[in-house]
Structure formats: C-alpha cells, structure tokens
Known about the structure:
The chain is mostly helical. It has eight helices and four strands. It has one domain. The longest helix is centred in the last third of the chain and has 37 residues, at 164-200. The protein starts with a helix and ends with a helix. The relative contact order is 0.17.
Amino acid sequence: MTTPRDLLIVTMDTAPDRPVEQGELSLALAGAELIDLLAAGAVGLDGDRIVPGPRPEPADRLLGEAADALVREAPHESVEDWLWRRGRGLAEAYRAALEADGDLVRERRRGISFQAGRLAPADTPARRRATDRWSADEPVLALLAEALGVRGKPAEDAPDVADDAVATVLAAVNDAVVELGSVRQRRAIEDAAFDNIWRGSGG
Length: 203
C-alpha cells in the first residue's frame, strides 16, 4: 500500500457522511504521491522544485504513473504546479483502483431489492494498515488528513515532520487546498448574486 491509498481509505472511514470535496482530495493525493516518491529516493527538492532521480519501479501502478509523469527537463516543475497538474481527476483514479482491488466495495441498501449504495472501505489488510497508521498518528498521514479537514486529534496535537522536503510538500498541499476552497466559495457567492439579479428582473 501507499500513502495516497491510505489517505483515501482514512478519509472515507473517518467522515463517511461528510465526504471530502474531490478537488481538495485530488490535490492531497498528488502530494501524498510526491511524499512517497521522496521516501523512495525517486525525487528530491531543490527549494520548491522537484528534481527527478533514478526511475523507480514501484509495485503500485498509480505511483508508477506518478513517477512517469515527472518533468525531467530543467527548469523543473514546482511542487505547487505538480499538485495542480497531477491532481486533476486523481481522486477518481484512486477510487477506481481501490475498488478494482477489492479494497472499496459498494454498500448494499435494504429495500424492495438490494441496491448498490455508496463506496466504502472493505475489511481488508489495506484498510487495517491505513487504520494502524491513523491510530498511531503517523505524521504525514495525519497532516494530509488535517489539510482536508479530517482530524483524529485536535489540531494543536498535530505531529511535527522533521524532513524539510516533506514539510515543503505538506505546506504546498495545505496552501493549494485553501486556494481551491476560496475559489469555490467565491464562485458560490457570484452564482448566488447572479441568481438574485435574475429573480429580481423577473427572468
């Protein structure tokens, strides 16, 4: 398993009735991929620039795709640019991968007939591993989840990250999530104002 897969399971397990916005989740998953690539020695950071190392051969298909997507020519891509580029549609890609692997299943709804409901984590080794990391307050997973508004402990108890490169990625994830939330809020206000004007004009 990988940090992105663990993060997706944790967000679905922790707040099943308050799902995380897909855009924000995609940004955090892209950050989680980058952190795993850092841990594997596949990339390094020069300031906020991602400098690829040797091409890794990760067992995880999506992490392999992330490694293949790295910009290998100078000037190298910034962490922020990576999050927005790699993050596009990433939540759905991970959801589909976990469902294909049996780590996510459709809940059955009782009624006149059994109907497929929402996706939920299955009782698998993958879920237990993610739960163990979450229960242990593993810093990277805890701080990624906190950026998404999913907290297992109060914010003041958030663990510290000693690795500067990992801390840089986590800060970029937090900034990107805040930015996306602000854009969404601004659009909602603009849409509401337009609706008021439309109704006021009798349209």
